Amino acid sequence: MFSPSVSSPTVFSPKPGRRSPAPARALAAALLAGTALAAAPAAAQDKELTLCWAAWDPANALVELSKDFTAESGIKMNFEFVPWTNFADRMLNELNSGGQLCDLMIGDSQWIGGGATYGHYVKLNDFFEKEGIAMDDFLPAAVDAYSAWPKGTDNYYALPAMGDAVGWVYRKDWFAKPEIQAAFKEEVGRDLAVPTTWDELLEVAKFFQGREIDGETRYGAAIYTERGSEGITMGVTNTLYPFGFKYEMTPGKYDMEGAVNSPEAVAALETYKELYDCCTPPGHSDAYMTEDLDAYKSGQTALQMNFFAFFPGIAKDPAVGGETSGFFVNPSANEAASVLGGQGISVVAYSDAQDEALDYIKWFAQPEVQKKWWSLGGYAVHNAVVEDPGFADSAPFAGEFLKAMSNVKDFWQEPIYAELLQAMQKRVHDYVVADQGTAQEALDKLIEDWTISFEDDGKL
Amino acid sequence: MTDHADIRYTAAPGEAATPHEATAPGRPRRAVRGLPDRWLATLFVTPSIALLLAINIFPLIWTVYLSFTNFRANQPGRPVEWIGTRNYERLLGSEDIWGYLQATAHFVVWTMLIQVAIGLGLAMLINRDFKGASFWTTIILIPMMLSPAVVGTFWTYLYQPQTGIFSAIVDLFTGLGPIDMIGSVSLAPWAIIIVDTWMWTPYIMLLCLAGLRSIPDYLYEAAEVDRAGPFQTFWHITLPRILPFLMLAVLFRGIENFKMFDMVVELTSGGPGSTTELASINLKREAFEKWRTGYASAFAVILFVTVFGLGNIYVKALNRVKS
């Protein structure tokens, strides 16, 4: 696949009837071989692929990684990266309009339903079979979340590209200060430690809120509160899932009453609001990934909620990297659960370069490429990477990442997910940030909104 | 009816007729003679009419049609069903929609009131000849030359409670401490009003200034002779004379603010909650994020009828004032 046709190289030919001497023949052979090698990528130089993704740290790592693909295949890679807050808007418009900007799309996990149903993504089963790419080689949770539609089936529309989940970062250096530990013990009555439950997380956040450390006022936690795209939903569900929130009473039946507004869900939403009210920095009412990173890196907060994708950057950050920060999986409540992040890589059905795009996916699926992907900062979910005995110790957050990926949960992946998401954005932002109504009312209204959406979609 | 063959090019005083036109006086223009006035008029107007129909009237009619269907633009293969007035019933029965319209009305009314008061005041100040008047006029006009999206973005920094200059100034004068203009339900609507006022008051000022400069001096001289006081002069001369300009400015700005989108999205994203979610922001979410095209079309029709109706009433009032 990666040996494009070789154009006939021009080679010096000796005059007929006159045999060239052995050294000359060797030189000619070497020239021929050299020219052929050089010509292989050159023949594909006119071929280009455009890969679309969000603009964030892993995307830069992918640019670096993809240089290997270009070197091997000669296919030039172009990249279209859009900031997260506009990513879904921009790229879903592109797909819905049948646009040809992207040949490869690393789309969000929730898009897989729409991508498959509306024919935006190429179905990859035949290709995987032909090329010997086995989905068993990837983490099952990632395959189910990023590749399969309908869920639980073997219909694949993407290759797992980037595993991710929402986790937490904490100021390890502050936690280690004897005076802080003593004050915590005195105030809370237990030793200061990394939170393992939501109750503990609230205690820690409250303890740090407004505390003077190194002469500056610090705050408890930077959490997701963004209104425009998906931020507050990602944050709230990170609390809802461990409390036992479910979307339906019976999977696939869309019977949401008693699941979405269960007592556990109400308690979870109230907990998130409590965390927002008590323990966030001033002006943290519209914050997502970047704002959380800024708040944490500038030393404002003791805790930060964010996707694991950012943790390699934090670990290397001059201000908060190294031993300054520690990482932990989302605390549990009634069960252990984390919000799924991450994406699969799909071939866009409207692309004119589908063969080259499939070449890229074949290349990307190789275990060696996956290992390099992890080493550059991408979260590979290939077994060759995550089942490596040294994986958990390969990075300070690697072990926590594996824990998170073992119990991830995702938002609706329905084709109308964007409509469902916008309804949740409104209802939970109204309650958590704007202080309107109660948690019970917010979730009841959410069921009303979602019921209308499913009725319109013919599911109810 | 005038025959086109009789029309002659007449050079303006001091302008030489071109040789082509100057020669052959009385020579018939066959091509022109063949077309009657009505045909010629139709020929010239047709492209404009066609363009208007294609980009204005047809989309409007199509939107009205879609508003009675369940069409979704992101599902082209899905059968489009005629659902009667269901979209309108849902819209008009939705508390949320009334909330968005209320937020829009609050924004439009207060921005107009404040901007007219400040704009008129600034225009009267600038209208006085003083040293550096031109310089200050230019300075005042700068905000309206910026992109609304840029303005929205940088005001988020100015409003930042910990580091923003706005919060620092308020704290300096009131001692209230850091205030969260964007995150507070009670302050966020005023946050967007302040930014819009900062940006667009110069526009009102500019139109008022045009009105003030059009008032003949002899009216003021007569008022002085009659010993009219400043308030009487303003009330009986200045205000009636600049009222049409002022009303025109309010009309333009009112329509603009009714469909305000970019600045507010950058500033608050419609939050906190839905406090500053103006009608146009919600319309965009329904149409291009939720892809409920039929429903969004119905909302667009309602907004169009509202603006069109209010605009017509206003224009009639404006004409009455002018007459």
The tally of strands of chain B reads: 0
**Range of strand content of chain B:** under 5%
Q: Most extensive interface: pair and counts?
A: A-B, 31 and 31 residues
- Helix residue percentage of chain A: 40-55%
CATH class of the largest domain in chain A: Alpha Beta
Overall number of structural domains of chain B:
2
CATH superfamily placement of the largest domain in chain A: Periplasmic binding protein-like II
- Structural domains of chain A: how many: 2
Write down the oligomeric state: heterodimer
Straight-line N-to-C gap of chain A? 47 Å
Q: From the 3D coordinates, which CATH architecture of the largest domain in chain A would you assign?
A: 3-Layer(aba) Sandwich
What share of residues of chain B is helical?
55-70%
- How would a crystallographer describe the biggest sheet of chain B? none
Order of helices and strands of chain B: HHHHHHHHHHHHHH
- Using the 3D structure, state the CATH architecture of the largest domain in chain B: Orthogonal Bundle
How would you describe the overall organization of this protein?
The complex is a heterodimer of chains A (460) and B (323). By secondary structure, chain A is an alpha/beta fold. Chain A is 46% helix and 12% strand. Chain A contains 19 helices and 13 strands. In chain A, strands 2-1-3-12-4 form a five-stranded mixed β-sheet, with helices on both faces. A four-stranded mixed β-sheet of chain A has the order 8-9-5-10. In chain A, helix 2 links the parallel strand 1 (48-54) and strand 2. Chain A is globular and about 65 Å long. Chain B has helices at residues 19-22, 30-33, 37-66, 86-92, 95-127, 133-141, 148-158, 165-174, 188-213, 217-225, 230-258, 262-268, 279-288, 293-322. In chain B, helix 5 (95-127) runs parallel beside helix 9 and helix 7 (148-158) runs parallel beside helix 12. Chain A binds chain B through residues 89, 92-93, 96, 114, 118, 226-228, 281-286, 415-416, 418-419, 422, 426, 429-431, 433-436, 452-453, 456, and chain B through 70, 73-75, 77, 90, 96, 159-162, 178, 180, 182-183, 185, 265, 268-275, 285, 288-292.
